[in-house]
Write a structure and sequence with these properties.
The chain is 47% helix and 19% strand. The chain is an alpha+beta fold. The two termini are 23 Å apart. The mean pLDDT is 93.
Length: 251
């Protein structure tokens, strides 16, 4: 199955982008090739760019506090496991504490590193990190993988409170949805959303064997999905088949 996720607002869109970058960063750091560590460093800079939004940190702290209040409301509920509830609350508290103690924006501490910022200023230029442009960076890439990895982990450590907060919030959001089977009749599916409930994320699972690409659009009142197929040149063409898939709406 292939999972597609569609955010209904800008806040969730930013969170998903950052999660995507952190996932990539984790994979690249574990590898040994200099080119992988080059792109790991580029990913750290991308995280800093996305996280530079002035109100991101405060918004995440408010979301964590809101989740804590909501979860505390489940105390004493006989249908809720107290042990499981306490474990989730501990994760929320830990994420809140870590993010709250982070000085400034995520990665702000790295902006004081002139060597890193010299790389950042040239990494977006095609070929801008050649050995004659940044000989010091070129020499760093010749270090042993373990040494480069240690440096990358040190630089990324200032971003980890943000990654932990995202993991907790997105995990709780995804857990709030209940998957159900639906059918795209003639390759199209539409569903009205109930008033009074605000959805933040749509999750869609398609069998990989179907080779479909979903085009998703949605707002607070309606969700629309059209299933497409790529031709030999990569162009998308609408499917006219009746196709079942799994849909989850997360509030």
């Amino acid at each position: 199955m292939i999972l597609y996720e569609y955010p209904f607002n800008e806040s969730i869109r930013t969170m998903l982008r950052l999660e995507h970058l952190f996932d990539r960063l984790g994979q690249l750091i574990e590898r040994d090739a200099p080119v992988d560590h080059h792109y790991a460093l580029a990913t750290i800079f991308e995280v800093m760019d996305v996280a530079s939004r002035a109100d991101l940190k405060s918004d995440l702290l408010k979301d964590l506090e809101r989740q804590k209040v909501q979860l505390n409301g489940y105390r004493g509920n006989p249908s809720i496991s107290e042990a499981a509830l306490e474990a989730v609350l501990a994760r929320v508290d830990q994420a809140f504490s870590g993010l709250n103690q982070l000085p400034g924006k995520a990665g702000a501490v790295l902006t004081g590193n002139e060597w890193l910022m010299s790389i950042r200023s040239r990494i977006s230029i095609p070929g801008g990190t050649c050995e004659f442009d940044l000989p010091g960076y070129y020499a760093w890439q010749k270090h042993e993988p373990q040494r480069r990895r240690a440096d990358l982990l040190h630089w990324a450590s200032s971003l980890m409170p943000l990654a932990q907060a995202l993991s907790v919030l997105l995990g709780l959001l995804r857990d709030s949805g209940v998957p159900h089977k639906v059918v795209a009749t003639g390759g199209q599916f539409q569903q009205s959303l109930p008033q009074g409930r605000i959805y933040h994320l749509l999750r869609l699972r398609l069998p990989q064997t179907h080779d479909f690409v979903p085009e998703i659009s949605g707002h607070r009142l309606m969700v629309s999905i059209r299933l497409m197929r790529q031709d030999a040149e990569g162009r998308l063409k609408a499917s006219i088949e009746d196709t079942s898939f799994e849909l989850t709406l997360c509030a």
